[in-house]
Amino acid sequence: MSSCGVIRLLGHAVYLATWVPRIPESDIQDLWDALESALNGKKASLETPLVIIFATKTE
Predict the structure, then answer these.
(1) Domain of life here (predicted)?
(2) What are the Cα distances from residue 30, in Å, to 12, 33, 34, 36?
């Protein structure tokens, strides 16, 4: 991530691949291609909500 908060598309795709459930990149490659084409080399800012869920186990 750069200092201005812009993530390159490849970096964002790699980041999303860490999420569960994982969606194979081959299933959404056409979406990444369309986004890259629509941006036409321009920078974009993508916001991702972050939620942390804490779970406890009782026996």
Answers:
(1) Eukaryota
(2) 15, 5, 6, 10
